[in-house]
Amino acid sequence: xxxxxxxxxxxxxxxxxxxxxxxxxxxxxxxxxxxxxxxxxxxxxxxxxxxxxxxxxxxxxxxxxxxxxxxxxxxxxxxxxxxxxxxxxxxxxxxxxxxxxxxxxxxxxxxxxxxxxxxxxxxxxxxxxxxxxxxxxxxxxxxxxxxxxxxxxxxxxxxxxxxxxxxxxxxxxxxxxxxxxxxxxxxxxxxxxxxxxxxxxxxxxxxxxxxxxxxxxxxxxxxxxxxxxxxxxxxxxxxxxxxxxxxxxxxxxxx
Length: 255
What we know:
Blueprint: H1 2-25, E1 29-30, E2 51-54, E3 66-73, E4 102-108, E5 124-127, E6 152-160, E7 163-167, H2 182-188, H3 190-228
Parallel strand pairs: 1-7
Antiparallel strand pairs: 2-5, 3-4, 3-6, 6-7
Protein name: UPK3L protein
Keywords: Membrane, Signal, Transmembrane, Transmembrane helix
Transmembrane segments: 196-221
C-alpha cells in the first residue's frame, strides 16, 4: 500500500510535465503575458460575483485564432488540459466548479483587441457579468456570475478551430469580496453599536425639541406681527346739528 501511494504521488507530480509536453507536441505558443486585474483606480474591480481584467492587447499574433478566457480555481491549474475544447461538458460554466474544473468564455478575435489601444478607450473585460444564461445549459460558454469567493486563476487561450495554438501564463490568484455576516458585526462591535444607537436617539430627541421650539417661535412672531399691523379705525361719528327753536310762551287760551 505505501508503494501504491508513492506511485500515485509520482503520477500527480508528472501530470503537469505531461501536459506541457502535450502542448509542445501540438505546437502551442506560450506567451509570458500574465492576465491581471485593472488598476485600483477603477471602481468595482472585484465584487462578490465578478472581477475586471485588462484586455490582452498586443499579446497574440494569430490573426485567424479565436481567443478564449479560461477560468478555474487556483488549486486546479495543474490538471488543466488545453485539448479539451470550449462548450464541452468538461468546460461548461453551469457545471463549474463541482463537475467541471474549469470553464471557457468571452471568446473573440484579435479584431477586438487592437494594438495599440486607441487613446481614451477603456479596455477591460468584466468576468461574471451575464446573469441570463447562468442556468441555461444550452449556453455552456456563458460569462456567468462566479459561484464563490475563489480564489480563481485565469489565462487566455487561442484556438484555431479546435486546435490550441497559443496561450498566456496563469494569472495570480484572484479572490472576490465576501459580505460580512450581520451576527459577526454585532458580536464584535456590540458595545460600540449600542453607544451609537443611544447617541443617535438623544440627538434625534434634541433635534425634535429644537424644531418644535423653532416652529413655536415662528408662530408667535407671525401672530405678533399681525397684531401690530392691524389698526382699529374709529368710525367717524356724524353729528347732526339742530337749530333749536325758541319756544315762546303762548298766551293762555282765552276761555
